[in-house]
C-alpha cells in the first residue's frame, strides 16, 4: 500500500474535513511535546510504554516484543498484578469466571521495565518514544490526547472513542502536533484486504449494492450473570478505572473485561462490529453513511447487561449501497453463507473468509436477461509458510502487521495504515448504530458537519459529560 507523508496527509485532511472546535483538558500539569522529542535512526530501538496490559494489551505487547527494534520501556495498569505480571496475585474469582481473558503473564523482559499505576506518570518519562493504549474504550480519548501532548507517538486500540465528539477532539490535538498516531483496526493490516480495497472500488464485482456482516455468540440464558455491588480487590484502583465516567460501586461482572456488555463503557457493535464496519467502509471507498436505522433490545438473556442481546442496523451510503450489521447474542449460526462478510455486486458476490483469502461467486441472470456470466469466479488464498509468515511476506496475523507498520512509521514519520481520521469515521458508524437504537428512529447523518439533521435528541448523544477532574 502506498504511503503518504504526514505533511501531505494533513493538507488533504484539512481540505476534506470541517474541524470541530473541541478539546480535552485535565486539571494537572501539562507536558511540553518539544521537551520529549527524540530523533530515531533506522537501527534504533523504539522504546514503547504500554497503557493497559490486561487481555488485549498483553496480546499486543507480545506482538511488539516479537519485533527486534522494539523495547518494552514501561507498563501501566490500574490493576497491580497486571503490572507486576504475577498471575498468582490475580483475584481467584477473575480466573474462575473469565480464565481466557486473564493473561498468563510472567514474561522475561531483557531490560529494566518501569511500572506505573497512573498513566500520567508514564507520560513524564522523556526516554519513551511511543505508547500503546489498550485500556477500556472510555479511556481512549483522554489517554490518546495526553500522549500526543506529551510528545509520544501513539497506537490506540479500537474502538477509537466512546463518543463521536471525542474522535474529532483527538484529531484536533494530533493536528497541532508532530506525532505519529494510528488505530488498531487490524483487518487493514491484511494484504488480502489491501488488495480488495483497490479492486472492489475499481469494479471487480461490478456495482456493489449490498453487504452484510454479523457478530454471533449465544449467551442464553445467563450471559454475564447477575451480581451486586461490592468492594473491588484491594489492588484494583476502581476510581481510576472509571476515570471520566460517573462514579458507581464496583461489580465483579464489569471489570476486568466484562465491561463490554455495559453501555456506559462499551458495547458489542463497538467491540466486534467496528472491525466489519471499517472493512466494509474501506472496500466501498465511502466516507460515511447518510442514513442509519437500528432495531433490537434485551429480549431473552437474563443478566446485568445494559446492551441488546439482539440488534440489527441498516446503513445507507451515498453511492447507493445498503449495509447491514447484526449482533446476535441469543442464538447461533452466521447470517453469512461463507466467512464473516458478504458483499454483493452486479457481477459477483464476495465472501471474505478470513484475513488470508476470499471467494468470489459470479452472479446468475435474473428476469429478462440473456447473459451467462458477467465475470469469472475466483478463489484467492495466501499460503501460510510457517513461523507466522505468509507467502506474500506479511504476518499471518494482521495485527502484527499493524504493529510492524507503526514501528516503521515512528522512524519514517509517515502515516500509519489506519490513521486517526479513518479510525474516527469507522467508529462513528458504531456510535450512530447505538444512538439510532436509543432514540428509536432512523438518523439522517451529515458527515461534513458531524451532526444528525433530523433528531436533536440524537445530537445530544454525540458527547457526554466527564466526571471531574477529567473534562471534555
Automatic annotation (TrEMBL):
- Per the database record, which ranges form the Gfo/Idh/MocA-like oxidoreductase bacterial type C-terminal domain? 219-292, 402-471
Taxonomically, the superkingdom here is: Bacteria
Q: GO molecular function terms here?
A: nucleotide binding
Domain named Gfo/Idh/MocA-like oxidoreductase N-terminal is located at 46-182
Recorded protein name is: Predicted dehydrogenase
Amino acid at each position: 500500500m502506498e504511503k503518504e507523508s504526514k505533511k501531505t496527509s494533513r493538507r488533504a485532511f484539512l481540505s476534506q474535513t470541517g474541524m470541530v472546535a473541541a478539546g480535552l483538558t485535565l486539571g494537572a500539569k501539562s507536558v511540553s511535546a518539544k521537551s520529549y522529542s527524540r530523533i530515531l535512526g533506522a537501527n534504533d530501538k523504539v522504546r514503547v510504554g504500554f497503557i493497559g496490559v490486561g487481555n488485549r494489551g498483553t496480546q499486543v505487547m507480545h506482538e511488539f516484543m516479537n519485533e527486534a527494534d522494539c523495547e518494552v520501556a514501561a507498563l501501566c495498569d490500574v490493576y497491580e498484578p497486571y503490572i507486576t505480571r504475577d498471575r498468582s496475585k490475580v483475584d481467584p474469582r477473575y480466573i474462575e469466571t473469565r480464565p481466557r481473558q486473564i493473561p498468563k503473564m510472567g514474561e522475561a523482559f531483557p531490560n529494566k521495565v518501569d511500572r506505573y499505576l497512573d498513566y500520567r506518570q508514564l507520560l513524564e518519562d522523556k526516554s519513551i518514544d511511543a505508547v500503546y493504549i489498550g485500556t477500556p474504550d472510555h479511556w481512549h480519548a483522554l489517554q490518546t490526547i495526553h500522549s500526543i501532548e506529551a510528545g509520544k507517538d501513539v497506537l490506540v486500540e479500537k474502538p477509537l472513542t466512546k463518543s463521536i465528539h471525542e474522535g474529532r477532539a483527538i484529531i484536533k490535538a494530533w493536528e497541532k502536533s508532530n506525532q505519529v498516531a494510528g488505530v488498531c483496526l487490524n483487518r487493514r493490516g491484511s494484504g488480502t484486504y489491501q488488495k480488495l480495497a483497490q479492486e472492489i472500488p475499481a469494479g471487480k464485482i461490478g456495482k456493489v449494492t449490498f453487504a452484510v456482516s454479523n457478530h454471533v455468540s449465544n449467551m442464553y440464558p445467563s450471559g454475564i450473570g447477575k451480581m451486586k455491588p461490592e468492594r473491588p480487590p484491594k489492588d484494583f484502583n476502581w476510581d481510576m478505572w472509571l476515570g471520566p465516567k460517573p462514579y458507581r460501586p464496583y461489580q465483579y461482572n464489569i471489570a476486568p473485561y466484562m465491561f463490554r456488555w455495559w453501555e456506559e463503557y462499551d458495547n458489542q457493535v463497538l467491540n466486534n462490529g467496528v472491525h466489519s464496519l471499517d472493512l466494509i467502509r474501506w472496500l466501498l471507498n465511502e466516507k460515511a453513511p447518510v442514513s442509519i436505522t437500528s432495531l433490537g433490545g434485551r429480549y431473552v438473556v437474563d443478566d446485568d447487561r445494559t446492551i441488546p442481546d439482539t440488534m440489527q442496523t441498516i446503513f445507507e451510503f451515498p453511492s447507493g449501497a445498503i449495509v447491514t450489521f447484526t449482533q446476535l447474542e441469543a442464538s447461533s449460526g452466521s447470517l453469512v453463507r461463507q466467512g464473516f462478510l458478504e458483499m454483493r455486486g452486479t457481477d459477483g458476490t464476495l465472501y471474505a473468509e478470513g484475513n488470508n483469502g476470499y471467494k468470489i461467486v459470479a452472479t446468475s441472470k435474473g428476469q429478462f436477461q440473456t447473459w451467462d456470466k458477467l465475470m469469472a469466479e475466483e478463489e484467492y488464498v495466501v499460503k501460510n509458510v510457517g513461523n507466522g509468515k505468509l507467502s506474500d511476506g506479511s504476518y499471518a496475523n494482521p495485527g502484527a502487521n499493524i504493529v510492524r507498520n507503526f514501528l516503521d512509521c515512528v522512524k519514517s514519520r509517515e502515516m500509519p495504515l489506519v490513521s486517526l481520521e479513518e479510525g474516527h469515521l469507522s467508529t462513528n458508524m458504531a456510535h450512530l448504530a447505538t444512538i439510532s437504537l436509543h432514540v428509536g428512529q432512523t438518523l439522517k447523518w451529515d458527515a461534513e458537519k458531524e451532526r444528525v439533521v433530523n433528531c436533536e435528541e440524537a445530537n445530544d448523544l454525540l458527547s457526554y459529560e466527564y466526571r471531574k477532574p477529567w473534562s471534555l
